[in-house]
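Need residues for this backbone.
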């Protein structure tokens, strides 16, 4: 790599180490207008201006390096192109912006670099990675890398049509996954982005998932953080390849009709020495008051949402992933921790807001700004909040007093249902409210129903192992749990491995147990998830009114003695109703009568006890006839056989087209 540079840009010479204000370089990508917008927290395309960006100076082509470090006494660019020499490349301070810049003619893509920052408050200099780097050195290396994001996309059909799809009325079954532990190559370890594209895309299509959600693909130094301790807010992790390789994966997913959701973490960041913490020797990105600037649970720093430049940084990051990587949605991590100043803190460990309350007013303003900017610029992109409290109107528009998210994870449903399912069936009748309570609040928000990675780690056991009983009963219970999730109102999310029936907790250092599919019980569970996805997509009643109370009606929610519930899902205008009946005991229920609105035949669309799913094969011979006997305040009724630990889906009148693999 050539070590020469063009030196300080013309019109900016001489200010160097003393940090005196210089004239503004005419060709610098960061202009005076950028500086004004940045200072006022209104610059949301910083990824086009800061960092290492291709450009020209005095007729020479190369890269401008521009960094925000307002408290620095001096900043030097160090890297492979100057032999990592602390004195070789002083940067020039731009007037009033707190931004430093320099131009390097001979920098080339792939060159490693950092900023050597000496603070006004200390004689000690720190070597920092570029907060706006587009690519980073593969961990454990911590340098930034000169790179561009040029890529020729081939997903125009997907991008052009996604705005025509209403996410509220469309099926959304999300496969949540960790890139490094889904599958591995025996010889080389992790699959790279392109290898994932070859294997993941056909798998998701076969399994009928509509979306994939990637645990944060942003660069993170500690692999065991799963990406949630982010350092590269504009750089995909290099563990699996280049930015273009990740673009290729997303491109292939879009071409296959699969939406892409990226986890994104604006709530906290790690304190690694090369990262954002104490970036210019001061609390630049984090709040200086540790009651507000340090997270006790994750032992990481909390962004200072009062600082306009920090809000610009974060919103720019979100838009970067939407615009450069064609993300269809962002799932915003740990929103609850942002909303409350006393989150996970005891008495005396937090500071009230100016009104004496516990609400984090600055974070609320930031979240509303984030959602507003994303939706105004990209009305076909949506945002999802991981929010676990009773904060009102998380998924309601800002003009109605909401936070502006499109959807919110239903953590209450997840906790209540997993607690219920973990009970021995003998005692489930005493916990019946855990099944039915959700309908009190089910339409207060636009919910995603998550069975996520957080529920299968840290001693919580796998979903299969949470289930009570012997091995057969565990699989039957898990089929019942998953069928219940797909039958209820709300979008669906399932973490990888649940469809295989993992016995072990998820371990990021391991890989999913694909060999288990040799056993009928595991293969049957996988087939069950595939057919649930297919039914959810094919039946309008199961998805059109996911966020509308008109789409759900109890048939009987009070049969706690037999631990049975039944309900009806309805479509908006077209499509037949779907009735869902669940038996949460290992005792078959014969001659179990429920009321229905229509006479004629009711056909089994799905039966979790079918032999194709490794069940016992008990059922209703494909269909039952309704009789004009009033029951459950309905004009007709049907007499059912409920298999043990099972869920039935029934549709009315003409037999539905059989789903693949459901024939008995």
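Answer:
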């Amino acid at each position: 790599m050539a070590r020469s540079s063009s030196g300080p840009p013309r019109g900016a010479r001489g200010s160097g180490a003393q940090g005196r204000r210089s004239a503004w370089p005419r060709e610098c990508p960061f202009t005076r207008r950028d500086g004004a917008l940045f200072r006022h927290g209104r610059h949301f395309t910083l990824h086009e201006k800061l960092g290492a960006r291709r450009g020209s100076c005095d007729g020479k082509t190369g890269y401008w390096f521009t960094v925000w470090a307002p408290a620095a006494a001096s900043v030097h660019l160090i890297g492979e192109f100057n032999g990592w020499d602390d004195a070789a490349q002083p940067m020039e301070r731009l007037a009033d912006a707190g931004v430093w810049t320099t131009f390097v003619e001979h920098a080339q893509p792939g060159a490693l670099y950092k900023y050597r920052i000496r603070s006004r408050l200390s004689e000690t200099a720190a070597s920092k990675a570029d907060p706006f780097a587009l690519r980073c050195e593969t961990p454990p290396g911590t340098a930034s890398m000169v790179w561009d994001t040029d890529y020729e996309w081939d997903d125009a059909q997907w991008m052009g049509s996604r705005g025509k799809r209403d996410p509220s009325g469309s099926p959304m079954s999300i496969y949540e996954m960790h890139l490094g532990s889904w599958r591995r190559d025996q010889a080389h370890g992790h699959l790279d982005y392109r290898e994932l594209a070859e294997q993941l895309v056909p798998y998701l299509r076969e399994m009928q998932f509509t979306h994939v959600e990637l645990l944060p693909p942003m660069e993170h130094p500690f692999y065991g953080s799963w990406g949630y301790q982010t350092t590269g807010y504009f750089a995909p992790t290099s563990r699996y390849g280049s930015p273009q390789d990740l673009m290729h994966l997303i491109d292939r997913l879009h071409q296959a009709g699969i939406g892409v959701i990226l986890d994104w973490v604006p709530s906290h960041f790690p304190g690694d020495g090369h990262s954002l913490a104490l970036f210019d020797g001061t609390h630049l990105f984090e709040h200086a008051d540790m009651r507000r600037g340090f997270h006790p649970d994750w032992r990481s720093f909390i962004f200072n949402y009062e600082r306009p430049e920090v809000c610009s940084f974060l919103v720019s990051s979100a838009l970067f992933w939407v615009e450069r990587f064609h993300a269809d949605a962002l799932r915003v991590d740990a929103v609850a921790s942002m909303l409350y100043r006393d989150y996970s803190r005891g008495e005396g460990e937090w500071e009230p807001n100016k009104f004496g309350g516990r609400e984090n007013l600055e974070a609320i303003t930031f979240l509303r700004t984030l959602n507003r900017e994303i939706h105004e610029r990209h009305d076909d992109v949506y945002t999802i909040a991981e929010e676990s409290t009773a904060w009102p109107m998380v998924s309601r528009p800002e003009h109605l007093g909401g936070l502006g998210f499109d959807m919110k994870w239903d953590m209450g449903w997840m906790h209540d249902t997993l607690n219920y399912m973990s009970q021995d069936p003998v005692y489930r009748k005493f916990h019946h409210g855990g099944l039915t309570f959700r309908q009190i609040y089910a339409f207060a928000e636009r919910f995603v129903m998550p069975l996520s990675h957080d529920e299968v780690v840290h001693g919580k056991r796998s979903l299969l192992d949470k289930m009570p009983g012997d091995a057969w009963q565990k699989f039957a219970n898990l089929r019942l749990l998953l069928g219940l999730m797909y039958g209820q109102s709300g979008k669906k999310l399932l973490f990888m491995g649940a469809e295989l029936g993992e016995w072990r907790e998820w371990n990021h250092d391991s890989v999913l147990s694909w060999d288990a599919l040799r056993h009928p019980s595991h293969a049957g569970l996988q087939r069950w998830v595939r057919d649930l996805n297919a039914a959810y997509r094919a039946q309008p009643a199961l998805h059109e009114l996911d966020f509308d109370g008109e789409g759900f009606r109890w048939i009987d929610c009070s049969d706690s003695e037999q631990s049975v519930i039944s309900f009806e899902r309805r479509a908006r205008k077209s499509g037949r109703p779907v009735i869902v009946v669940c038996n949460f005991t290992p005792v078959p229920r014969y001659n179990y009568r429920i009321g229905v609105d229509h006479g004629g035949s009711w056909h089994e669309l799905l039966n979790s006890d079918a032999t194709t799913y490794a069940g016992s094969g008990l059922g209703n011979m494909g269909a039952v006839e309704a009789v004009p006997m009033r029951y459950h305040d309905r004009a007709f009724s049907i007499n059912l056989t409920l298999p043990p630990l099972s869920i039935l889906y029934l549709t009315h009148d003409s037999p539905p087209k059989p789903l693949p693999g459901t024939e008995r």
